[in-house]
Specification:
Chain lengths: 175, 925, 204
């Protein structure tokens, strides 16, 4: 057993005692009822279960939740799909996913949202050349499986969010 | 009266269980209905401006939508805590099952309940005919198939369940005894389809299924495969007659006729998993105090799921028989056919019945989903084609299909017959003979999956055609042009399509495309740079509809013009909610902001009754039954077979037309000051909606809200509820609406509401159901898709890259163009997986062993696809063309196009799937 | 040939075949075991003995648990079937994964059994120069002795690395669904030690 303190979407949860064998996925879905984070394969192959982990050094990454223990997240801060919209206002990515018809059944969408959000935040810190953008997006999203869409509209949504604010995400031609 | 699947709805009521199929409700705020009615009044409706789907916002915010999201605490009136069940399955189907040893679950880890075949039998629980086979393998029997359940364990608390599943994971506690070999069962069904055309296209066929009926060889001895030889049959029997023509066609193909190019080829396809991202899950609670079974599942066939559960428990002994079943249906995380007629809901119901008073969740993990989920049939196809060397026209075609249906019958027979009828694809062939048989095996159960057998047969066909074109030689597009079935031409079953046939336009598009005319130059480029380049083309025609499809809907407009829609179509990603809102908008001028899909029980005012099997009924029985003005051949059917647009939106469209004609139009006339007797009052068809206003030439535009207000003020028709049935054509009926007008429409039941009143049923005054002879039709609806691919294969490694691809399709009126394109892209991706990546070994090495996951089963990732080089073109609809189905056809030609491109690049023609990187490397070294 | 002699020959051949088959069967059954260095003492020639000991060690080095992270390319393999790692990951700049998916995100400090997820604090890919995939035991031998390619290790360092390193040791405790490497780490250490003592000779 481990005493877990975890911050989710800016809100502190815990202290709560959790079995060491409890996955973070089950902690979110069974204990907290936060079912926006999905269960797809249980083997870190599809990343439908991915959440954003915010490290103390200011960087973030997406972690699967199905193959890691809740206990290992003691003291950590994560963001789930439920935390993207603020005060009822959808994030730029959420709106882009809707407007681009990026998803169909929607089951993989939370994972794609989290990964795309991390990508945007990463690019803000280290911009890429326009010519490298498509490859950058493909590499960032390739860990996420989708069976409905063929991925294209997800990629177009992320690309268009970036192209709408080139100064924020892309190297200027002279850079 | 013959007992049939449809009749047990009445039996269920007779044996005392009332069926009520309602919407899911959620815990606190909002109620269930609000949660799954989208987008919801006062919420942003992306569909209102075409800027997104009605379910867009919940899907990007992680709202509870799917069956796997819900726990008891989310459902009002349910006890607060959820218990958890697990199905124990046999990973062996060749030894006697001797029981489970749960001694490793000591003390605290013990399950609260263990349900096995013995408990099921004792409770008087029956398996519905569609799922025939032991629900649990009894001790002392060899399991019927790998993955057959042997027990259901129920754990009161999640933590115990979680620890127990870890302890049970290695499966060694499931015990087996002596080796018996696999259980042998008769085949699920066999058919022969033969057609001999008359001397001219207009002359009647000499022999066809439509004329003579469908024929089966029957069983005359204990052989694994049927005996097809007509000489073995009773002379003069229908089978012998058709088979004699069939054998004659084969004899012709076997002659050494120098004028005919004859190719004799075998093609084999693999077992496939639909791999929808949400594993099957459900929640149920037997409220023992009120004897109500509450059920929450996500399926493509909601009505069938509830009926099946009612049958399951219909003759059970107390306390296993509920008085009432309240089934609620959630959005679905992908379906592709794998959630249509799945046995999973039966086990969800059992979990609740054996743990009364406590809500129980049953959910597959992915290993279990691979083990137990419905699969695509592997096919072995032996085909012969004879083509006139001079004219390039196909003279004769013969094929033998053998399907591995796996452990349970499920849809195997249907898949076999649909696949057989698609065996000649887009082509017009004057002599065709196809035999098909679906076998039982100890493998995983195969059933409905996107393409439904036509993917397999048309892949083999388009690969064969490619070879014919090389052999003749004849340009592949020209060959297709010469042989394409023309509009009005007869299909293999002997009937013409009743919708547009646009093969010529598809072929024109393919021929003009740069991928096609750059193929020689691109191939040469490959020779220079150490890769090989190839281009492939394929063209497919896929039916949509099943031959007994229903549509149920209710549409309402309030005083301010807000529109509400409820319909029985299921949302699995297909966008049917948005499609129905858009289709209704063409009649009512506004996009609904409250759309509830997967509804089956709020259509009580129609008071529908049904009986018999719509597929097997004879005309006399139908004629007698339809005299009851409430009788319909079926009440509600699955969302499958690419019918979302064509069928799923039909009843709502018809309801909207009624509201317009008898509510909004008279209100508009009133606002315009036009008398009902004026001639222009009859010109409702000339009115057009634009930006929320009704326009009629020479008159001022009227806003929707003004019209709605007037319709309510005048107590005109403001809501309509309809039912439609299609057996390769819609039923038509006439109704007297608003006192005088006779309204004839492609529906068979109607109820209307005026102003704010309740729904009142209007008895139909006459009805014409499609004739039962239509059951002989293979299909009457078709849509077409052609695909071009250019591939590059790295010589050294066999790694294949799709450099460019183009798919062109037609689907009538696209109700949500972005969804049509999205489905085409998704179909392309699934085709790539099927052609190059996905496979499941049969039997012990396959997923029936419970050890398969996505590490082993490879589906296409973004990097496998031409993300920036896939062009989708949708031909504009013909004038006034209704929507067609397209979700399956967009997958089909991709596969053969890839195989043909591989031949172009490597000179090797592969005759099985998938074609993997190592096979390509082998072909190139 | 006289028939009696022929029968004797046949019997002799049959006996030889049988013993070969039995040896094969026993060999299969014992493929999860590692022979002790002593069992090679019957080989008189020291060099030959050394090479034979290394060949036995080769059972560990070529086992899936090792080769999966000593791949020829930049992508690890997975599972007893040695399929390509899913999700797709490559070594990245430092062998610890892509920027978007670092190895330790999933592969944490220890195996996580509920997720069937192997783990170790140092989980990463062996450098390219230490790739073993597709190589013969003889080739691996040459490579493992080459200080340019073995991380600058002396033969004694190799004894410690194989015999005591805990990431190497993971191969014998890989968690559910994975076959452990043959024998034990101690037995492997004994083999390396004996190999070094006998001159670290390589098989042909």
């Amino acid at each position: 057993m481990t005493t877990l303190n975890i911050t989710i979407n800016g809100r502190a949860y815990g202290p709560v005692d959790v079995r060491d064998a409890l996955t973070l996925n089950d902690f979110l879905r069974e204990y907290l009822g936060l079912t926006g984070t999905k269960f797809g394969c249980g083997a870190a192959q599809c990343l439908s279960c991915g959440v954003i982990v915010d490290s103390p050094d200011g960087t973030s990454y997406v972690s699967p939740t199905c193959v890691v223990s809740a206990a290992s997240f003691d003291g950590k801060a994560i963001r789930t799909v439920e935390g993207h919209a603020k005060n009822g206002e959808l994030s730029t990515l959420q709106k882009a996913f809707i407007e681009h018809f990026s998803f169909q059944c929607g089951y993989c969408t939370a994972g794609f949202l989290n990964e795309s959000q991390v990508l945007l935040e990463r690019l803000e810190k280290k911009r890429v050349a326009r010519g490298d953008l498509e490859k950058t997006i493909t590499e960032a999203l390739d860990g996420h499986l989708c069976r409905c869409t063929g991925y294209i509209k997800y990629h177009e949504a992320v690309r268009d969010v970036i192209l709408a604010e080139p100064g924020r995400y892309l190297l200027a031609k002279a850079d | 009266m013959r007992t049939s699947r449809r009749e047990f709805v009445k039996f269920a009521t007779a044996s005392g269980i009332a069926l009520s199929l309602s919407r899911l409700a959620s815990a606190e705020e909002p109620t269930f209905k609000a949660r799954e009615t989208l987008p919801g009044r006062q919420r942003w409706n992306p569909a209102a401006t075409g800027a997104g789907r009605i379910d867009g916002v919940p899907k990007v915010t992680g709202a509870k939508l799917y069956a796997s999201d819900f726990r008891a605490a989310d459902l009002p009136g349910w006890p607060a805590s959820t218990s958890h069940a697990m199905l124990i399955r046999a990973a062996d189907a060749t030894h006697v099952y001797t029981g489970i040893d749960l001694s490793r679950l000591g003390g605290a880890l013990k399950p609260s309940v263990v349900v096995t075949a013995a408990e099921i039998a004792q409770a008087g629980i029956r398996v519905p005919a569609f799922y025939a086979g032991d629900l649990f393998c009894p001790v002392g029997k060899t399991p019927l198939y790998l993955g057959q359940p042997v027990a259901l364990l129920i754990f009161e608390k999640f933590d115990v369940f979680d620890e127990a599943r870890l302890a049970l994971r290695d499966g060694t506690f499931v015990k087996f005894g002596g080796e018996t070999g696999p259980v042998v069962m008769p085949d699920y069904g066999a058919f022969r389809f033969t057609r001999v055309a008359g001397p001219t296209p207009d002359a009647p066929d000499i022999y066809s299924a439509v004329q003579e009926g469908w024929i089966s060889p029957g069983r005359i001895q204990n052989t694994e495969l049927p005996v097809w030889n007509p000489l073995a049959m009773k002379p003069g029997s229908p089978y012998a007659k058709g088979a004699a023509y069939g054998e004659a066609i084969r004899a012709e193909l076997a002659e050494k006729n120098p004028a005919l190019l004859v190719l004799d080829r075998e093609f084999e396809t693999q077992s496939i998993d639909p791999m929808f991202l949400e594993p099957e899950a459900g929640l149920a609670w037997f409220n023992s105090r009120r004897e109500i079974l509450e059920l929450v599942v996500g399926v493509q066939s909601p009505y069938e799921a509830a009926e099946s559960v009612a049958f399951l428990l219909g003759k059970a002994r107390a306390p296993f028989k509920p008085a009432r079943i309240n089934a609620q249906f959630a959005y679905v995380g992908g379906g592709f056919g794998g959630r249509d007629h799945t046995p999973f809901p039966l086990y969800v119901a059992l979990a609740a019945m054996f743990f009364p008073g406590r809500p129980v969740r049953l959910a597959h993990d992915r290993y279990q989903q691979f083990q137990a989920g419905i699969k695509r049939h592997p096919f072995k196809m032996h085909t012969r084609i004879g083509v006139d060397r001079t004219t390039g026209k196909i003279q004769a075609f013969a094929a033998d299909h053998v399907l591995d249906g796996g452990g349970l019958a499920n849809y195997s027979v249907n898949v076999a017959t649909v696949a057989a009828n698609a065996a000649i694809g887009i082509y017009d062939v004057p002599k065709v003979d196809v035999t098909t048989v679906a076998l039982h095996s100890r493998g995983v159960t195969a059933g409905s999956m996107r393409g439904y057998g036509t993917l397999q047969t048309m892949t083999a066909l388009e690969v064969l055609v490619d070879e014919v074109c090389s052999a003749l030689p004849l340009d592949p597009i020209e060959f297709r042009r010469r042989n394409a079935l023309k509009p009005g031409g007869r299909t293999m079953a002997g009937n013409p399509y009743i919708v547009s046939v646009r093969t010529g336009e598809i072929l024109d598009k393919l021929e003009k495309h740069p991928i096609w005319h750059q193929r020689a130059a691109e191939k040469a480029r490959g020779l220079r740079s150490g890769i090989v380049v190839g281009t492939g083309v394929a063209c497919a025609a896929k039916d949509y509809g099943t031959g007994a499809d229903c549509s149920l809907a209710a549409v309402e407009m309030d005083q301010t013009g807000n529109i509400t829609i409820r319909c029985d179509a299921v949302e699995m990603g297909n966008g049917v909610g948005t499609a129905v809102a858009n289709r209704v908008a063409t009649y009512l001028g506004g996009v609904a902001d409250e759309v509830t899909v997967a509804e089956v029980d709020t259509f009580g005012p129609l008071a529908l009754v049904t009986s018999g099997d719509p597929y097997a009924m004879d005309q006399a029985t139908q004629d007698a039954a339809q005299r009851n003005p409430r009788w319909v051949p079926a009440i509600s059917t699955a969302t499958t077979a690419s019918i979302g647009a064509h069928v799923g939106t039909h009843a709502a469209a018809e309801a909207a037309r009624v509201i317009f004609r008898f509510g909004l139009w008279p209100a508009a006339l009133d606002l315009w000051g036009i008398a009902a007797t004026d001639s222009s009052a009859r010109q409702s068809d000339a009115a057009r909606w634009k930006d929320g206003q009704l326009n009629m030439s020479g008159l001022p535009p009227l806003s929707l809200s003004a019209i709605a207000a007037r319709a309510h003020a005048r107590t005109l028709v403001t809501g309509a509820m309809t039912h439609g049935f299609s057996r390769w054509a819609w039923s038509q009926a006439s109704f007297t609406v608003s006192g005088q007008s006779i309204w004839t429409a492609p529906i068979d039941a109607l109820a209307v509401r005026k102003g704010d009143g309740g729904y009142l049923r209007i008895n139909r005054t006459s009805v014409k159901f499609p004739p039962t002879d239509n059951n002989r039709i293979g299909t009457s609806y078709t849509s077409q898709c052609g695909t071009l691919v250019r591939i590059e294969i790295e010589r050294a490694t066999g790694a294949l890259r799709i450099a460019k691809a183009y798919s062109v399709l037609e689907c009538g009126e696209p109700l949500v163009p972005q969804v049509v394109v999205g489905q085409s892209q998704g179909g392309f991706a699934m085709g790539v997986g099927y052609a190059l990546l996905e496979t499941l070994p049969p039997y012990e090495g396959g997923p029936g062993n419970g050890q398969w996951n996505l590490g082993e089963y490879i589906i296409a990732r973004g990097s496998d696809l031409p993300l920036h080089d896939l062009e989708i073109e949708v031909l504009p609809p013909l004038p006034n063309e209704p929507p067609k189905g397209m979700a399956e056809v967009v997958m089909v030609p991709v596969v053969a196009a890839l195989l043909n491109a591989i031949f172009d690049a490597t000179g090797r023609r592969f005759q099985s799937l998938p074609v993997t990187q190592s096979m390509l490397k082998g072909a190139l070294t | 040939m006289k028939s009696e002699t022929r029968i004797k020959c046949l019997v002799a051949v049959a006996a030889l075949l049988m013993s070969m088959l039995s040896a094969f069967a026993i060999d299969q059954m014992q493929s999860d075991k590692l022979a002790a260095p002593e069992s090679f003492s019957s080989i008189g020639d020291t060099t030959a003995r050394s090479a034979a000991i290394f060949t036995e060690l080769g059972k560990v080095l070529t086992h899936a648990r090792c080769v999966n992270c000593h791949p020829a390319g930049d992508r690890p393999r997975q599972g007893d079937q040695r399929r390509l790692h899913q999700p797709p990951v490559t070594r990245g700049a430092d062998g610890h994964g892509l920027e978007t998916l670092r190895c330790p995100i999933c592969h944490q400090k220890a195996n996580f059994e509920p997720g069937r997820m192997p783990g170790h604090p140092e989980w990463h890919l062996a450098p390219r120069e230490m790739a073993w995939e597709g190589k013969t035991v003889a080739e691996i031998c040459v490579q493992i002795k080459d200080r340019e390619r073995n991380g600058g290790r002396s033969p004694e360092d190799l004894v410690h690395h194989i015999g005591e390193d805990t990431l190497v040791g993971w191969a014998w405790e890989p968690g559910f669904g994975r076959q452990p490497a043959p024998g034990t780490q101690k037995q492997a250490r004994a083999l390396v030690e004996a190999w070094v003592k006998t001159g670290a000779a390589c098989p042909n």
